[in-house]
Amino acid sequence: MCGIFAASLQQQVANQLLSGLESLEYRGYDSAGMAVLNAAGQLQLVRVAGKVANLRQRLAEQGVHGQLGIAHTRWATHGGATQANAHPHLYQGLAMVHNGIIEQQALLAQAPELAQQPWLSDTDSERLLRWLALGWRQASDKLLYLQQQLASVQGQYSLVLIDQQQPDCLWAARSGSPLVLGRSEQGAYLASDSQALQPWCHERALLDEGAVLQLQGQEWQLRDAQGQQQEPKWQGFSQQQQRVDRNGYAHYMHQEIHQQPEVLASSWQQLMTNGKPRLERLGSGAEQLLKQVKEVQILACGSSHHAALIAKYWYEAHLQLPVRVEIASEYRYRQSVCQADTLLMVISQSGETADTLAALRHARQQGYLASLGICNQAESSLAQEVDYLLLTQAGPEISVASTKALLCQLQALAWLQLAFAYVRQAPNWQHWADQLDALPESISHSLSHEQQIRQWALDLPLLPCCLVLGRGPSYPLAQEAALKLQEICYRPVLAFAGGELKHGPLALLEPGMVVIVLAGEPHLANKMAANIAEVQARGAEVWLLSEGQLPVIANRQLNLAEQDPWLAPLRLLPLVQLLAYHRALSQGELIDQPRNLAKSVTVE
Ligand code: M6R
User: Helix 429-447 vs helix 260-271: angle between axes, to the nearest 10 degrees?
Assistant: First the structure.
């Protein structure tokens, strides 16, 4: 998954390409490049390994000139993060940037002559470019040719192509990966998301699935998947798409952790009206839908999956509503059973996670009652494809490690619990509403422990590995804590349910090791206390993050005042976020852009 930015302007293009790429780095940042064409048809290519900052530096040494160009920031899927694998790729006077994954074996099987050629890179993108180049020069209608040639490509892509022989043109296509067209007085643009266009354009239009586009000067021709002429569906920019500033924080992650009380409070206002759940937020007919649901299937990846696991504990205990949760990448490839009146829920911060989208599309064939998405991006593929949408209001989350978006997902899932209860006239909904109302303040309180957590982070030994334990909803919370620590501290951190300890993980314990214990469930306090004793008996230390007292003395303990345990995982979450953040900070890591990862995983 990668970021694409391209423009055809009435002024020099290179600086805008660079700025565009910088705002797309969340999609990948292991290599970057651009190709710029001048009016004489000279193609200037600059590619570097590493971040866009390296590209900026290279361009300062080696300028490029021209008003039309394509640029790319990459997240390696085929081939390492090298200059040779960086985009744009060149072939026979064509230059192309590509986002997505192509089934290259299938492609080469169709054109065996390509398989014989020496390749300049290890990428599927170069294979795709050569496939497109096969009949390019002979094609009189390039757009038609592009669409025909892409029809036999398996995989997903968004791509932009330029041709030395037509220095005023660029061509674009998308299938499975987003691409947005933008315009301003200066010219026309294409980018992987709207946010990258916002500083330059007054309007943008999302390209539909299967669309192809030709841009010549300021004139465009757009065709839909059926080859019919289309007009771009122009829209303005919303407030949320404005560029995000770190406001004095050293890292976006730190800022995003501290934004949590504020975003929860403003989201809450939008979820309720006159003290009641605003069901129309989900779409029309939501009340009837929530009444009808007999079971829920939730699909998600990563942190969003952890949110789903926590909701399973809640809905089964509080609503007696059976919930199945599955990792989207597993669900999409297996035969599963769909019971009558089951609501499909898909959770994704970005709404572009390839496995989650594929799982949603696969599930559509299974006969679910309806699909409901929980997503932070109104324009995402997921938001467009679900029947009902609960849009979270976390605002742009830049750091790859998800913090505020996850907490907003949990708030949305908790709100859904009360919405289910409300439509079913269950008595508890008002009590739950009161607790959610108080949540932003409780999160501020959790954040007030930052200095203590920072000291823990400085002292925490993470080698040879570190364990995190939880029980009940604190078990998925432990999984989230482990993920955060792995993601930005690059250490093996393993999460287990407390009860599983003696089924294997105890063997890992040795003196000096730290086991982080998360405990927010009073009814499981004695059970967790027994696990803590097992750990300490083996000479390992227990550092306990809890809500309410446990009958045990941990080696270190941070105890939040006891409240109704329902939302305890949400109140403990900022503590584990801060622990990971401060640990990564003390190690001097690149916190917002951890190695090998990307914010939005738009490829499988
Ligand atoms: O955009 P999504 O919520 O679908 O993303 C899912 C995961 O890729 C994401 O949660 C990932 O695990 C985060 N980097 C975790 O911090």
Answer: 160
